[in-house]
TrEMBL record:
This is Permease. Pfam families: ArsP_1. Belongs to the UPF0718 family. It comes from Selenobaculum gibii. It comes from the Bacteria.
Length: 332
């Protein structure tokens, strides 16, 4: 039953077969040809991701209604030390789905006087790890890969927060005087009808904000899967190139997308035989170190602290990538 859930419910193999049958039997198209294979990949992945997106985001935003920023502040204020970093990283899994949504909440936390290490653990975890992305990853890569991504994401968030706290760089924070809007800060007091309306509203807002990145990601994935020779991909990103993890990390940073936009590209790389650690590094670089979020953070972090944050996360991503490449045979 679990395999059926992963393959048919999350993975939607029935949808892939349905689209193949229509293209082959009804339209007489050969899905093994690059052009029609790309069309099949694009249609299947787009429908699949959008269906999962609507369903999972609705479920997760309903859960998020119990953790508005004010309540999250109250919870975090009760902890310090490594316990506080772990709690902050875990709370990041039930908050916004992209870094540019997380930054305003991070600013609110710093203005509330929460310990720096906790706020940075939250900042790293929030766009990187959430329940929806875990289930989406299961649909593409299976249970082991999904769990590995979530675990290493949380570990990176906890260690990153601890290291920044140890460096005592509180004086490197800028005073941010602009108003910070905390969406649905009153949701802690919602009744069930209000929570459902909150989930519906946020789902539509999130989908509206990310669908274009999903379409671009699916398009890039279709091109990689059907037009770029596998030998070329593996020559650059395969096991034989020791710089593969570094390359995808550098490529990922300038890209602005959330976890959902990276999935089709990651899937195409996986199908081409790219090692798991290299795929993880790409996804983490895009979601945790996007250029727009770094620009936003420059409004509240001085250059030294901003550089420390980027450096710690980047080095963590590289370590994770190379570590999992060494053990990828047991991961996928």
């Amino acid at each position: 039953m679990f395999d059926f859930f992963i393959e048919q419910v999350l993975g939607m193999k029935w949808l892939a077969n349905f689209i193949s049958n229509i293209m082959i039997s009804n339209l007489g198209l050969d899905v093994m040809e690059p052009l029609w294979g790309s069309v099949h990949f694009f249609i299947y992945d787009t429908i699949k991701i959008m269906l999962l997106l609507f369903t999972l985001i609705f479920m997760i935003t309903y859960i998020q209604s119990y953790f508005p920023p004010e309540r999250t502040k109250k919870i975090l204020s009760k902890f310090d030390g490594i316990t506080g970093n772990i709690i902050a990283a875990l709370l990041g899994t039930v908050t916004p789905f992209c870094s540019c949504s997380s930054v305003p909440i991070f600013i609110g936390f710093t203005r509330a006087g929460l310990p720096m290490g906790l706020t940075f653990s939250f900042l790293i975890s929030s766009p990187l790890v959430d329940l929806a992305s875990m289930l989406m990853l299961m649909s593409f890569f299976g249970v082991n890969f999904s769990i590995a991504y979530v675990v290493v994401g949380l570990v990176l968030a906890v260690i990153g927060g601890i290291l920044i706290s140890m460096l005592k760089l509180d004086q490197e924070m800028r005073e941010y005087t602009q108003p910070v809007r905390e969406l649905y800060s009153e949701s802690e007091e919602f009744n069930q009808r209000q929570r459902l309306e909150y989930a519906k509203t946020d789902t539509m807002l999130i989908v509206k904000n990310v669908y274009q990145y999903i379409l671009v990601g699916v398009g890039v994935g279709a091109l990689i899967h059907n037009w770029v020779p596998q030998e070329m991909i593996l020559a650059v990103l395969g096991d034989d190139n020791p710089f593969g993890v570094l390359i995808v990390t550098m490529i990922g940073v300038p890209i602005y997308a959330d976890i959902f936009g990276t999935l089709p590209i990651a899937e195409a790389l996986y199908l081409a035989g790219v090692p798991a650690g290299t795929i993880l590094a790409f996804m983490m670089a895009v979601t945790a170190l996007s250029l727009p979020s770094i620009i936003m953070l420059s409004n509240v972090l001085k250059p030294k602290l901003l550089g420390v944050f980027v450096g710690i996360v980047a080095v963590g991503i590289l370590i994770i990538g190379y570590f999992f490449n060494a053990f990828s045979s047991s991961l996928l």
